[in-house]
Amino acid sequence: MDGILNIRKEKGFTSHDVVAIVRKTLQTKKVGHTGTLDPDAEGVLPICVGKATKLSEIIMQGKKQYRAVVRLGITTTTEDASGEVLEQKEVVFDETEIANAVQQFVGEIKQIPPMYSAIKVNGKKLYELAREGKEIERKARTVTIHQIQITKFLPPERLEIQVDCSKGTYIRTLCSDIGKRLGCGAHMESLLRTETGGFTLKQAITLDTLQEMAEQGRAEQALLSMTEALKAYPQAVVCAKWEKMLYNGGKIHEHAYHCPQHLQAQDMVTVFDSNKNLVGLYQVQDENELLLKPFRMLI
């Protein structure tokens, strides 16, 4: 089995729990997720199976969309509802002021990763140190918030936001920082990931549905092909004459492939042999001609 499962993770499961269940359900060892979701979070979690595990990193790089409920007035140790309350302040629920504060976070911003996160420092995860009562200095990271929409005002202390952002964005840190900007503090009360790397919530299936399909011998129908997963990239077909070079992982010269889309340096391209079999993901290099250089072989 090779492909990607678009799983809707439910509350209470870690991303590793989902991987373990998929391994057992499909009876295959080669399974990996595409970026962790906290146990209390729900939503899209693409799971790569077989050769498609080579796409995990690529899917992780894609744009992400979340829907979160921000609880104003309460700051917690974890920046979400699972933590202990650190401080509680009165909330002045001024919709205009809140909207202005939220929009201050659109664009490139700096975030300090929370102590309760899976980031490793000197070989140890931050949440492990946090559980030992330790707090260490963390470097701020640059992330991109493409868009924030306030989808609902929920007075007297809550609002719901939809966030389009880059890889590495901590939504609970965003919620906490919004609270700091307003002067009342805040934490993330709930989180739903609605999209990641082109996979959407509408198309996702639950683990229960996957298990039912497996019992009926239809599990493979739930797998999205690697070609489908990479459909957003331009496609190039290599002429039969140059397939030996292709399968040996060499650079493909401009005269050896056909691509209907306009290409430029640094573009990522899915490359197929003359029989339309997917071979790999390549990157365009401009060396007096547009060469295709292997980025990730998928055979």
Task: Put the structure in a nutshell.
21% of the residues lie in helices and 35% in strands. The chain has 299 residues and is α+β, with helices and mostly antiparallel strands.
What can you see in these coordinates?
By secondary structure, the protein is of the alpha+beta class. Helices cover 21% and strands 35% of the residues. It contains 8 helices and 18 strands. It has helices at residues 15-26, 56-60, 95-103, 126-131, 171-182, 207-215, 226-229, 243-247; strands at residues 3-9, 31-33, 42-49, 64-72, 74-76, 85-88, 107-111, 120-121, 124-125, 141-154, 158-165, 186-196, 199-200, 235-238, 257-258, 268-272, 278-286, 290-297. Strands 1, 2, 3, 4, 7, 10, 11, 12 and 13 form a 9-stranded mixed beta sheet that branches. It has a 5-stranded mixed beta sheet with strand order 15-14-16-17-18. Strands 5-6 form a two-stranded antiparallel ribbon. Strand 17 and strand 18 form a beta hairpin. The longest helix has 12 residues, at 15-26. It is globular.
| Helix content range | 10-25%
- Secondary-structure element sequence? EHEEHEEEHEEEHEEHEEHHEHEEEE
Cα radius of gyration in angstroms: 22 Å
Largest sheet: 9 strands, mixed
Mean pLDDT: 93
- Look at the helices and sheets and give the structural class: alpha+beta
Strand content: 35-45%
Instruction: State the end-to-end CA separation.
Output: 13 Å
What is the general shape? Answer: globular
